[in-house]
From TrEMBL:
The lineage of its organism: Bacteria, Pseudomonadati, Bacteroidota, Bacteroidia, Bacteroidales. InterPro entries: Bact_polysacc_biosynth/exp. Keywords: Coiled coil, Membrane, Transmembrane, Transmembrane helix. The keyword Transmembrane applies. Residues 224-251 form a coiled coil. This is Exopolysaccharide biosynthesis protein.
Length: 723
């Protein structure tokens, strides 16, 4: 309860500051905002198609990859607010306003007064860059002549903080918000010129579409161009390698190297088998002939000396060689078969002719051993023919061996060369296919980007604003009033917390740590006729509060103390003496100024009052001691008294020295009560002890009832005496 009252009285004390300063601040804000600009707002909504769009790469509706989609939306918002985009908006807006403005009347591009302001600040060389009827060319001229120098008008127009409408500080106020989790972006912009505001949003949307397409397509177009260059180079290399392989095959007369080498290996395998058979037949026939010749050597010599016989053998050998070539290595076609049959007939005829010739030549019918030689000659002839056949086959086989060896020698380097060229072609081909796949992916990505970019649509077209937005002047005035009031409260609250002035009961008890027993009010200018009456009422309450601490022993000793001179010890003591004397009590007032010497031996060594001063027959003795910061009071005098009162002015600072002295007095008092009495208090503080002070008007009674939170109490008229 007391803290609630304390807070209410805090606000009551600062009521004039709390009203006056906020009112002055509000009036100043009203004067300051007398020419406040009226703002216009233009809004638009852009559909992006990022979340719900169609994906050509998957040929189906895209799955919810929210991180990627959210990043795309954020990128779009960043592009809208990027410095590059806003710079292009600034230059195009500047060109449009210069080209379409009118200094005499407002239009949908710029107001007349804004156009006049703009023309006054535009240098002549900038006006010379304007191409009438061609906004794009004008913007291009602006960018071509822009220099990164703070003295350059075009460059500074965007960078200067004082640049209205066209500067970065103004354009960055454009708001870009995503509508919930949808594909929609909401753009809004506020400015004081409706035409500039409207055209700013129009230009921003157009520049955003261009910038977004440039960023999205530029990277993909570069990739497509790269793949096409690399693909053309790889295709050229592949064709050159294939042509080189073809020329090499033609040069080496190779149609199918693998099949041809397989065929050579197969022929070689068959050749080796036949060659072994031929060698065996040759060795067998040679051995048989040698054996037979040993038995019939005379007949053999006759035959060998016969030219006709040798010619026949030579012819048989040639026929046998031809037959062997055709039979072993020739193709089995009709012509070869007919030729082979003819050769075999000729061979048989020649063999019969040789056999007959042998019979004619043979003269000796017996061999060396006396055996008939005709049979041996026939055997020898047969074996000789067989040997001739084997020898012919051997010659043919050796010829073919040489040819096969030549084929192996021929095909061996061709194979490694062909394999090397084929590996080169294969690598180049795989590179070509990989590049082709990359090109297809890039083209597909380009089509995808074209689809997603084409989904950028303005769903709510910007509208030219006609009516300005409600200005915030009232809010600003109210804010100035409230902020000033908060500052006043905070300032005085800070003073309330750090101020060490003993003003009222709560603060005095919080600072000193002792209970406040009573107060004495200061003189009031407003209620001057009632000052004495208020003091008497306060003294009555103080005296009444002292009575419970009187003992049975007489006299009752009350020590009147203070830490400094001028706190009002004698003032309070005199009022107490007069009050009790009016009640018929004998009261003695002893002061350190007249009745005793605070530096005397009797005082310093005294154990009670009678040791240093005589009180007579007084029932109550008020002893006013010296200021405690100058001289101390002996502890026995403080302990032997009935009551110790520390008098302190409520309007002075309670220093740390005062607090140390006060705490020391409390220790010296022992069990004797020590209380604080505030002097020179305000009337509202005094009323905490006395109740309502005079005058008792209806208004004062109503205020007092409110201060005591008697919100529903009935008004009862108080006794005019207040006693």
């Amino acid at each position: 309860m007391k803290y609630v009252l304390y807070i209410l009285r805090f606000f009551y004390r600062i009521r004039f500051w709390l009203i006056l300063l906020p009112v002055l601040a509000a009036c100043y804000m009203i004067w300051k905002t007398r020419d406040i600009a009226r703002y216009y707002e233009v809004r638009t909504t852009v559909y992006t198609g990022v979340v719900s769009g169609y994906d050509i790469e998957q040929a189906s509706v895209r799955e919810a990859d929210w991180n990627t989609k959210n990043s795309t939306i954020v990128n779009m918002m960043d592009i809208l607010k990027s410095e590059a985009t806003l710079r292009r908006v600034s230059m195009r807006l500047y060109a449009r306003c210069l080209m379409n403005g009118d200094s005499m009347k407002n239009n949908t591009y710029i107001n007349a007064d804004t156009y006049r302001w703009l023309m006054d600040r535009t240098p002549k060389y900038v006006l010379d860059l304007i191409v009438k009827g061609d906004e794009d060319k004008t913007v291009e001229n602006f960018f071509d002549n822009m220099k990164p120098d703070n003295r350059d008008h075009l460059y500074g127009l965007f960078m200067w903080e004082a640049s209205r409408y066209f500067g970065y500080k103004d354009l960055e106020q454009i708001r870009v918000d995503r509508i919930a989790s949808s594909d929609m972006l909401k753009l809004s912009y506020q400015n004081s010129d409706p035409g500039i505001t409207y055209n700013t949003v129009l230009i921003l949307v157009k520049e955003f579409f261009d910038q977004y397409q440039t960023l999205r397509f530029g990277e993909t177009n570069d990739a497509i161009a790269y793949f096409r260059r690399e693909l053309a180079e790889a295709g050229t290399k592949l064709k050159a390698a294939e042509d080189e392989l073809t020329s090499y095959n033609v040069e080496k007369r190779v149609i199918n190297y693998t099949d041809e080498t397989k065929e050579v290996a197969s022929i070689n395998k068959e050749f080796e088998i036949q060659y072994q058979d031929v060698l065996m037949n040759y060795a067998k026939a040679d051995a048989a002939v040698s054996q037979l010749e040993g038995r019939i050597d005379m007949n053999i010599n006759n035959m060998r000396s016969n030219s006709a016989f040798m010619e026949k053998l030579k012819l048989i050998s040639e026929l046998q060689t031809q037959i062997t070539n055709i039979d072993a290595f020739g193709q089995k076609n009709e012509a070869n078969l007919e030729k082979l049959a003819t050769l075999k007939k000729a061979l048989k005829a020649e063999e019969r002719s040789v056999s007959e010739l042998t019979k004619t030549i043979n003269e000796n019918k017996y061999s060396k051993e006396g055996i008939v030689s005709d049979r041996f000659v026939q055997d020898w002839l047969a074996q000789t023919l067989e040997l001739s056949k084997a020898k012919a086959q051997k010659e043919v086989m050796e010829k073919w061996r040489r040819e096969l060896n030549e084929k192996y020698t021929y095909y061996a380097p061709i194979g490694s060369t062909i394999k090397s060229k084929e590996r080169e072609i294969d690598f180049t081909e795989r590179t070509y296919l990989s590049l082709l796949e990359g090109l297809n992916s890039a083209i597909l990505r380009l089509r995808q980007l074209q689809m997603t970019t084409n989904t950028l649509k303005v769903t709510d077209e910007p509208s030219y604003p006609i009516s300005p937005l409600p200005h915030k002047r009232k809010m600003m005035v109210l804010l100035a009033f409230v902020c000033t009031a908060i500052f006043v409260v905070a300032y005085f609250l800070f003073l309330e917390l750090v101020d060490r002035t003993l003003r009222d009961r709560i603060r005095a008890e919080r600072i000193t740590g002792r209970k406040v027993l009573g107060v004495m009010p200061r003189n009031s200018r407003r209620y001057r006729p009632f000052n004495q009456q208020a003091k008497e009422i306060a003294m009555h309450c103080l005296a009444k509060a002292l009575v419970p601490y009187f003992g049975r022993e007489k006299p009752v000793v009350i020590n009147i103390l203070s830490t400094e001179e001028g706190d009002g010890k004698h003032f309070v003591a005199q009022y107490l003496r007069d009050y009790w004397q009016k009640s018929g009590l004998k009261v003695g007032l002893l002061s350190y100024r007249e009745e005793f010497n605070c530096r005397s031996e009797s005082y310093l060594l005294a154990n009670n009052l009678t040791d240093y001063c005589q009180a007579g027959d007084a029932m109550i003795v008020l002893v006013v001691h010296q200021p405690l910061t100058e001289e101390s009071v002996p502890s026995p005098l403080l302990e032997s008294a009935n009551l110790n009162l520390m008098i302190a002015r409520s309007d002075r600072t309670w220093t740390t020295i005062d607090q140390e002295v006060f705490e020391k007095v409390g220790e010296q008092s022992g069990e004797t009560p020590l209380f604080l009495v505030l002097n020179q208090t305000a009337w509202d503080v005094t009323e905490d002890f006395t109740g309502l002070l005079p005058p008792y008007s209806r208004f004062r009674r109503w205020l007092y009832r409110l201060s005591q939170l008697g919100l529903t109490a009935r008004d009862t008229k108080k006794n005019e005496s207040g006693v």
